[in-house]
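Ticket #436: bound-state structure for adenosine-5'-diphosphate.
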Amino acid sequence: MAENGFLIAAEGVTKTYQTPDHSGRLVLDRIDFRLKEGEIVAILGKSGSGKSTFLRVLAGLTPPSEGRVVYRGQEITAPAAGITMVFQTFALFPWLTVLGNVELGLEAQGVSRDERRVRALKAIDVIGLDGFESAYPKELSGGMRQRVGFARALVVNPDILLLDEPFSALDVLTAETLRGDLSDLWVEQRVPTKGIILVSHNIEEAVEMADRIVVFGSDPGCIRAEIPDTLVRPRDWASPGFRQIVDQVYGLLTTTPQGVVGRRARGEVGAPDAGIGYRLPSASIQQLIGLIEALCYPPYSGRADLPHIAEDTQISDEDMFGLVEAMQLLGFGNASGGDIDATPCGQAFAEADLQHRKQIFADQIVKNVPLVAHIRKVLDERPGHTAPETRFLAELEDHLSEEEAQRVLETVINWGRYAELFAYDYDRGTLSLENP
Ligand code: ADP
Ligand code: MG
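RESOLUTION: The complex was predicted; output attached.
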């Protein structure tokens, strides 16, 4: 039995990663969280808000910098047996069959050969892979491979399952089927698992699966809100109760207190990575233009319900979070309570022709994105008006991880090129001022 009515708890968990300039990067800020026995909790939050880090800390794979994790009454200090993670994609061994890949989960535990086989066959059966025991990974579709991953996780009879976006790499129908099968296993108690934490970037998936939804805020990662989800199962995506929770979560994920996005990016309010190191959302120009046009023209005419316009424009939730952040950052729109309004500047952009759009876009990014202003200044001052991209990458890495620095640089190059503020030579890896 779980002591004190919870399976696992995070108490004041803080996580700081080292940065090249040694200032440290606060990724999780005093997280208090409890998972009760029999509960599925979904975690939603923007990319980079620390969701994966939080799961790793819960699993004992990464130590917290402060605070502690308590699992069944014991503080966790090493990877905990009983807690298993499932990832977006699995590294399956290509030279092992499905059976071999699943048995692997048990080898580390010193389970005898015969028992390994029996348990692996059962896990394969439970997850709907029977008939494929002797198949090799290359013979399987993405959905089937992900099932092998689940079987490998389930074969150890995990007490707690930590699912890190396990359906994200699958197409919509495959994801739906696998999600449904997992729900059935859970509801019919065909797995001994006592609690599940599901990180997702799909709001509907979270509302369908969870008993409680935890919304993470970013910079630093923290728990911004918790929403109970007590809808009767099986859940109908079209029911008013379901839509109401989707709307509420959408609102929480896209609303930032008035003006804070822009002020934070410009370094005017105290965020750890304000200024040039602001983690720009990876919003593509094409999607941004599509969204602004849809928003400003009928039927929306300047104001839209975010879940509605996302569906109309076929923009995924994850892309939408980035786009809405970019809209606010650039002064094209304001989001609150799950709605978005176009600003006069956004309207002007929608109505302008191509050249004027570029002009408006250029003005807005120079004004609101310090990194753009910085790149322009460097290029203006350098003889030849050229600089290697590695120079900016190194500066960004003082604030962001390598991967994020790369992503932010790609975004800013993409935006700057559209605005015709600077040019980029892919082969040389250089930025330069556009030839007049
Ligand atoms: P999410 O899963 O919500 O997208 P992550 O937990 O992956 O967020 O990352 C949160 C932040 O921590 C990001 O800024 C990421 O770059 C940083 N980060 C994650 N792992 C490491 C690491 N091992 N070293 C340094 N920074 C890291
Ligand atoms: Mg993650």
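RESOLUTION NOTES: The CA atoms of residues 40 and 209 lie 7 Å apart.
TICKET STATUS: resolved
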